[in-house]
Write a structure and sequence with these properties.
about 120 residues, mainly alpha, 6 helices, TPR-like_helical_dom_sf
Amino acid sequence: MDTHGKKALRVLDAATNAKRMGANEKAIRLYREYLDMVDPSFTHGVWNSMAEILFEKKEYDNSLSHCNRALELMKDFIPALELRAKIHNALGNTTAMEEDRNTINKLNSIEQAKWDDPNHYYHYK
């Protein structure tokens, strides 16, 4: 891994640690720094982490925007769908909340069906 990649991982680790310690402003700043360093392809988790912080601060519209960005990058990302359902609930958007919950239930059913199918590749060793 090149030096730039190692630096990006250090910044991401520092952001995650700051979030864990409750230093939310520092975490968001570090997450944004990380986003500036990497290709957006696999940053859905970072966008969701920032959305969680914003949700805790009751910045629901901003949190929703970050959740939506995570879902643009990975449409079936269940943690972002779960958080978005909470945000919709907090905003009183019950129809949107139910749509997200239905999507989560559908995705969980699909995944469970894979585990229930003895011929699915999950069971191959």
